[in-house]
Amino acid sequence: MNYLIKDAGIVNENQISYGDIFIKDGFIEQISGVLDPAGNPKEINGRNLFLLPGVIDDQVHFREPGLTHKATIYTEAKAAAAGGVTSFMEMPNTLPPVFTQQLLEDKYNIAAGTSLTNYSFYMGTSNDNIDEVLKTNAKKNDVCGVKIFMGSSTGGLLVNNPLTLDKIFAECELLIATHCEDETIIQSNLNRLKSEKKELEPSDHPVIRNEEACYESSFRAIQYAKKNNSRLHILHISTEKELQLFTDMIPLEEKKITAEVCVHHLHFTSDDYEKLGNLIKCNPSIKAPHNKTALWKALLDGRLDIIARDHAPHTWAEKNEPYEKAHAGLPLVQHSLLLMLHYVKEGKISLEKVAEKMSHAPAKCFRIKDRGYIREGYYADLVLADMNRPYTVSKENILYKCRWSPLEGFTFPATITHTFVNGNLVYTFPVQGGGKHMFDESYKGMRLKFER
Questions:
Q1: Separation of first and last alpha carbons in the chain
Q2: I need a surface site. Which of 225, 236, 340, 359 has the fewest CB within 10 A?
Q3: 3-class DSSP assignment, residue 68
Q4: How far apart, in whole angstroms, are the C-alpha atoms of residue 91 and residue 94?
Q5: Which among 110, 109, 122, 104 is positioned nearest to 73, based on CA atoms?
Q6: Which of 88, 90, 84, 161 is nearest to 121 (CA)?
Q7: Is the peptide bond prior to 65 cis by the omega test (within 30 degrees of 0)?
Q8: Are 385 and 50 spatial neighbours (Cβ–Cβ below 8 Å)?
Q9: Which residues pair with 307 in a beta bridge?
Q10: Per-residue pLDDT reduced to its tens digit, 286-324
Q11: Cα–Cα distance between 228 and 64 in angstroms, integer?
């Protein structure tokens, strides 16, 4: 079906204009002007709504295969669509980890049959699978990148062999995305606290996984990248100290080293452990308030390039274990855009900057083909938001398979009303509908393509 969105506030490329959008055969056919849409398209009233390019999420954990008691590609992509996320890039720490080309392709096959949104998957690295990693180069136009855990992880995903790291940075042609925390520093902090305290608690998390652990690892990744002229993207920056490693003096399209900040590091601080405990336990940790202040400044001045989510669901039981056994990670993909719209209302960030950091910049950073902008000829990945319709997070409207959120009870000032993926209206949240999410699951997302 074709669509005509009428009278919307179009948020795109650092401006807001008001007009119409004609969607035809999955693409943006025409923007404003004298529209003459053929084929009797379905009209959608965009008056008093804002139209944004669909959010591109460069970092999620959808848990399939092997961890489907927590989440699946189907459930989390559906939650993503309800949150205005139209494309995602998913991480390799599943069971088994994505250490071979066949396992990588298996995930694409699952997504092709189940994902409501567009998708790509990272190739995983270990100390022992360098040959498989480098085979990804032959598929570089439809794989988002290679992921390296340079801090503690599970399933053999920690890469701490300097020879392996040097070879990956030297020979990998793809974007290299890194999780940067220094394992030696983490273990030293953990052992020290264990000797001082009878029992550890959630508020100890940012002491164990502290600023120094993040900085030393990020610094080391950048050294490898500069030595080998690699394309490096450092995930989830969480400290003020790391910000000195990045620049706002180079246009994003020319940067060889880029960085992102996650919504939870922009929202929570270590003061929130008292109330939320393990529910905000994540790696890297949520830290002292001065870090949040510095992250916001760096996001707005261009040192941090992308707003991400690091959606990482666990079951309620797994989060309610004692601190040391409680799993690290937060489910966020359904509510990340809403959280940024909250900060728009607070005056912290503009709608134009939200579109830049959540849509334009990921498309530019990863060189995604024909997405991330509201442009004629681009795929119609679009989101309509009502900035004057509050939305409260509750167990009844949480779509994650894990069925909980650290934002439960929080009221956003805005609501996502429509999400288009490849021109298909996959999600609506009508005013008249009893507060029910409505999905059209007859369409599936597409495999992202990259222009490298």
A1: 32
A2: 225
A3: coil
A4: 8
A5: 110
A6: 90
A7: yes
A8: yes
A9: 261
A10: 999 999 999 999 999 999 999 999 999 999 999 999 999
A11: 33
CB within 8 Å of 68: residues ≥ 6 apart: none
Buried b (16+ CB within 10 A) or exposed e, 72-98: bbbbbbbbbbbbbbbbbbbbbbbeebb
- Range list of β-strands (E), 327-423: 382-386, 391-392, 411-412, 415-421
Angle at 194 between CA 189 and CA 196, to 5 degrees: 100
Please choose, from the candidates 6, 24, 9, the residue with its C-alpha nearest in 3D space to the C-alpha of residue 380: 24
> What token pair was written down for 372?
């991330």
SS3 call for 189: helix
Pair type for strands 42-45 and 3-12: parallel
Partners of 408 in the beta sheet? none
Q: Are 83 and 333 in contact (CB under 8 A)?
A: yes
Q: For 207-279, list the strands marked E by DSSP.
A: 232-234, 257-262
Report pTM: 0.96
Conformational region of residue 249, where left means phi above 0, alpha means psi within -120 to 50, and beta covers everything else: alpha
Gap between the Cα atoms of 30 and 19, Å rounded: 11
Q: Name all domains of the chain by residue range, CATH numbers in brackets.
A: 54-366 (3.20.20.140)
HSE value, Cβ hemisphere, 13 Å, CA-based, for 90: 34
Question: 221-239, pLDDT tens digit by residue?
Answer: 999 999 999 999 999 999 9
Tens of pLDDT, residues 66-113: 999 999 999 999 999 999 999 999 999 999 999 999 999 999 999 999
Angle at the Cα of 447 (from 444 to 452), degrees rounded to 5?
155
Q: Are 105 and 73 in contact (CB under 8 A)?
A: no
Query: What's the token pair of residue 57?
Result: 């999420």
Q: What is the DSSP letter of 139?
A: G
CA gap 134, 171 in Å, rounded: 7
